[in-house]
Design a protein that fits this description.
Blueprint (H helix, E strand, L loop, with lengths): L2 E6 L7 E6 L3 E10 L2 E10 L6 H14 L2
Antiparallel strand pairs: 1-2, 2-3, 3-4
Pfam families: Gp49
Protein name: Addiction module toxin RelE
InterPro entries: HigB-like
């Protein structure tokens, strides 16, 4: 069974990280569209202690594509 936690990404507007721990660490970045809807902009399997800059930049750039 997996557990998850949500954290707002500091320094961003409306970008959040969902942490899912199973046998591997999964990270999903998403933005809220409405109170009951979200858009997943990027996901990856985390292999290091820190989130790689490349993964964060990709999530931020994809989020910007959907900002109005």
């Amino acid at each position: 069974m997996s557990t998850g936690k949500v954290k707002k990404i500091s320094g961003t507007f409306n970008l959040y990280e969902l942490r899912i721990k199973t046998s591997v660490q999964i990270r999903l970045f998403f933005r809220l569209i409405k109170p009951d809807k979200l858009l997943i902009v990027h996901g990856f399997i985390k292999k290091t202690n820190k989130i790689p800059v490349k993964e964060m930049e990709l999530a931020i750039n994809r989020k910007k594509e959907f900002d109005i």
